[in-house]
Amino acid sequence: MTAQPPKHFIRLQDLSDREVEDILDLSSRMKQSAPRTNLSGRTVGLLFFRGSLRTRTSLVAAVQQLGGNTVNLTASSDFWDLESRDGAVMDGAAPEHIRDAAAVMSKYVSALAIRPKAKGSSWDIDREDEGIRAWAKHSRVPVINMESTLWHPLQALADLLTLRECLGELSGKRLAIAWTRSPTPAGHSVVNSILLAALRVGMHVSVAHPPGYDLDPGVVDEAQAAASARGLTLELGQGLEDAVEGAQVVYARSWSALDTYGNPTLAASRIARMSSWSIDETLMARGDDSRLMHPMPVRRNLEVSDEVLDGPRSLLYDQAENRLHTQKGLLSILLRS
Amino acid sequence: MTAQPPKHFIRLQDLSDREVEDILDLSSRMKQSAPRTNLSGRTVGLLFFRGSLRTRTSLVAAVQQLGGNTVNLTASSDFWDLESRDGAVMDGAAPEHIRDAAAVMSKYVSALAIRPKAKGSSWDIDREDEGIRAWAKHSRVPVINMESTLWHPLQALADLLTLRECLGELSGKRLAIAWTRSPTPAGHSVVNSILLAALRVGMHVSVAHPPGYDLDPGVVDEAQAAASARGLTLELGQGLEDAVEGAQVVYARSWSALDTYGNPTLAASRIARMSSWSIDETLMARGDDSRLMHPMPVRRNLEVSDEVLDGPRSLLYDQAENRLHTQKGLLSILLRS
Amino acid sequence: MTAQPPKHFIRLQDLSDREVEDILDLSSRMKQSAPRTNLSGRTVGLLFFRGSLRTRTSLVAAVQQLGGNTVNLTASSDFWDLESRDGAVMDGAAPEHIRDAAAVMSKYVSALAIRPKAKGSSWDIDREDEGIRAWAKHSRVPVINMESTLWHPLQALADLLTLRECLGELSGKRLAIAWTRSPTPAGHSVVNSILLAALRVGMHVSVAHPPGYDLDPGVVDEAQAAASARGLTLELGQGLEDAVEGAQVVYARSWSALDTYGNPTLAASRIARMSSWSIDETLMARGDDSRLMHPMPVRRNLEVSDEVLDGPRSLLYDQAENRLHTQKGLLSILLRS
Asked: I need a surface site. Which of A213, A273, B130, C78 has the fewest CB within 10 A?
């Protein structure tokens, strides 16, 4: 069975002069070859600075179903801290500048999907979304945001498809965004994204949340401008029952309070008092044949009751499935060549 | 070289109305497309709650050689704790229910291969194999067990092919399962699986182990019923020499004692007294031209001597290679469409 | 939507006798099928004992662009310690011998790319490169070194292509290898590799470094023999300005001192005194229309100034891009069938 021993490549000296020549010639010719028109033979890079189940799996599957492949990198185990300040004297912990990492990755992959991690101490700093913007600034291939501090556009695309499948024409319909209680509240990215997406397609929006859980002022300004330009109603800070009244769709989501951002102890003690902020069948019945959306993960019987989640009102699994389909659509547009 | 800047997707606002429309239309059409008949364009999800070298590599390679792709997820770095109790009020550490994780993953992948992790404190609890059964309960695509507390069916398939290649007709042949000493004993999954697989194909089986290392009573009941139904001998708790006497195949494996399950200190002190439970050429010579099997990893010169492992009796590398081939066969059957 | 429940494979008992037969028959036939002539349907295994961004991404992309796939394994999370001593009684921490791991992996993959980790306490031991040589000894498929203690041949291939693209005929040209200061100095692998590669293609080489940062004596002997056989000048231990004088290319790189190997405190205090060992435009101007090379990651404004890195002298991104192309060439040669 064992013919001749395999040819190892431990040092360059293991190759003859002719082999080195052949490899270099072949490499030069390969370098000239034109990119193909679909994702066959193309690699999409996924960089995770935080964990991911849904996004990772659905994006990898989307690329693979288009005939492409991914390389998945996890910060700290696969790579290292990156410097992002221009002109920095790099004598600290970070051995590489994001400018260089992005330029190099751009040579290898057709797109870079990034899930950044916020620093978590100051909202004013984190809301700048530097962890994704610095990649976009320096990358020479499309950067795809896999959820940053402010935005989760992949979720928004899937949510729009789900809304259209469920309601048909969206203009003039009513969406209630409902804050829900969780011991580990999510970020603002999903709620910011669905808020602006819904207004953009002509839906009236009401946002229910307890005092102190206001959305980012910059996002609110943008939402109010969008509502005003389209003659839509936008109500903020309502109670749950008022917001759900007459809505076709209730979008449930926990999110953190900005005035205790970076102070988890204070944030936790406040959340503990919010036990009434939960979605059940009685609340849903106030809507207009209302359906429930939620980007998951969902804490069952805390954020939403099993009865609603497992009943006919739930669109959660449609939303999740549409992550796959819309990501395939997005990749086809972004990476058409 | 740099033509126009790449099109980034940081927020949904980065897309024009027309682009959003195009993506949603395209996504809808893609959603209708029928699945293909082989693994081309299909993704298999691999979820690891414990480490893996052989199983991970051989299963990934199997999928890829069938034209498919995998997405590999590792608990704790890639995803989080999962709740498995029905009706739970999810106010604890787990932010997601396995019911939802399984439903969502089912939308993205054609099969889910899972390597669960036992809790490790109570055998009565762990022997229920909830870590794999809960996935099977909720998944809408085939779940493949990559080794649970009780079973390792991928290993058993490979072992059956190896036995058939080595012995031809298996009915009436003799298999000795031999407990071996290891400072880090393996679980019961492999020995349970080969025990029942061998009886099923008509082999007489003897199991050698020191006092206190009995197999799970439920597994023993099932084995005795199988032996009795086929008129096969099944001997349990023999000494090494008696078990190997006249056997065509010796299957070596360490396994833990159930009465010290969850007590590693007690377990370790007992194992330290078992120095005679080791396989060497003298022992193997008692068999009938006997061959050695072992699922690996194998502790050389502790469980089995180098002389046996590197000599003509060893089937270990055939077993390992057959993991690849039988997994390709399995996938072709499970995922035929 | 839900037709019949999916077929799970939790135990072998879940399959009928006929299904087991079918799978085994199919597995046997699949085992006979001849390998294909390109990388389509072939898997390359990547084993990382240390982190990697550039090498991981470029090698994965290379394999994928050739139509193949990879399986990427990370030590400690995906697999375990491996024993490498022949004849060892394996009663310690390592549950598997590298001999067995390599033999098994060889059954699954077409090539094994390894990034070993040095033990880090003794240069005399680490310079033996056992972490890659043991794999090469036992593997039955080509082993590709993804950077060991002494060598980084993938980088050397890319550097040679870059040099040829930049200078055309290399014979008689001058290369300066310049030690640069870094709080986290790199290993010797890159500088050893480019030193011998440059001499091999006929370049005169000067190596600048502070006292105490001499290269490995064995590597120096090999370099001096190569220079002498080709009539080339090789100067070692020069100052930065002398080395760069008249050079067409300056190759910047930090590396550790061998006499403080394994003593990071001593090493750090010595490096702190080396502030003048930095590359800027004034230094580069001493060369002959000189270009800068560096394998990255590069500490900006510490090792090399932004002005040089972002100006026309820099070849860094060409080097990085050529990693991809030369790895595709290499794989095509190593894995031609």
From this structure: A273
Is any Cβ of chain B less than 8 angstroms from the Cβ of C211?
no
A21–C contact, CB cutoff 8 A: no
Interface confidence: ipTM more than 0.90: no
Rounded CA-CA distance A303/A299 in Å is 6
- CATH architecture of the domain covering B153-321: 3-Layer(aba) Sandwich (3.40)
Residue B283 contacts by C-beta under 8 Å, 6 or more apart in sequence?
B240, B241, B244, B250
- Token digits of residue C105: 């992996």
Q: Does the pLDDT value for residue A188 go beyond 90?
A: yes
Give yes or no for B289 touching A (CB within 8 A): no
Domain with CATH 3.40.50.1370 in chain A: 37-149, 155-321
Under DSSP, is residue B239 helix (H, G, I), strand (E, B) or coil?
coil
Record: contact B320-C104, CB cut-off 8 A? yes
Chain B residues whose CB is inside 8 A of the A334 CB are 7, 9
Residues of chain B with CATH 3.40.50.1370: 37-149, 153-321
> Best of A7, A10, A64, A106 to disrupt the C interface by mutation (most C CBs within 10 Å)?
A10
Helix (H, G, I), strand (E, B) or coil at C204: strand
Which residues 141-180 on chain C approach chain A with CB closer than 8 angstroms?
Answer: 141-145, 148, 150-151, 153, 156-157, 160-161, 164
Contact B134, B85 (CB under 8 A): no
Using alpha carbons, select from C136, B31, B25, C21 the residue that is nearest to residue A65. Answer: B31
**Both tokens assigned to B160:** 């059956």
Looking at residue B1, its pLDDT comes to 36
Transcribe A83-114 into DSSP letters.
E-STT----SS--EEHHHHHHHHHHH-SEEEE
For chain A, the residue count is 337
What tokens appear for A155 in the block?
């979720």
pLDDT digits (tens, 9 = 90+) for B192-204: 999 999 998 899 9
**Total Cβ atoms within 10 A of residue A30:** 17
Task: Please give the average pLDDT of every successive group of 10 residues along chain B, which has 337 residues.
Answer: 50 63 57 54 91 92 90 77 89 91 93 91 93 89 92 91 91 97 94 94 96 96 96 97 98 95 86 88 98 97 97 96 87 76
How far is residue B77's CA from residue C235's CA, in Å, rounded to a whole number? 48
- Does domain B37-149 sit in CATH 3.40.50.11810? no
- Asked if C80's CB is within 8 angstroms of B53's CB, the reply is yes
Torsion angle in degrees (nearest 10) through CA of B131, B137, B141, B146: 20
Helical segments of chain C, H only: 17-32, 54-65, 98-108, 123-126, 130-138, 153-167, 189-200, 217-230, 240-244, 264-271, 281-284, 306-309, 316-334
Answer yes or no: are the C-beta atoms of A97 and A88 closer than 8 Å: yes
In chain C, which residues fall in CATH 3.40.50.1370?
Answer: 12-149, 153-321
Residues 90-149 of B with CB under 8 A from A: 90-92, 95-97, 100-101, 103-105, 107-109
Q: How far apart are CA A129 and CA B159, in angstroms?
A: 53
Residue C114 pairs with which residues in a beta bridge? C47, C145
CA atoms within 13 A on the CB side of C130: 15
Distance (Å, whole) CA B310 – CA B305: 9
Give the pLDDT of residue C34: 34
CA distance B34 to C180: 58
CATH class (in words) of the domain with range C12-149: alpha beta
Distance, CA of A245 to chain centre = 29
Asked if A300 and B108 come within 8 Å (Cβ–Cβ), the reply is: no
Name the CATH superfamily for A155-321: Aspartate/ornithine carbamoyltransferase (3.40.50.1370)
Of A204 and C49, the structure prediction assigns the larger pLDDT to: A204
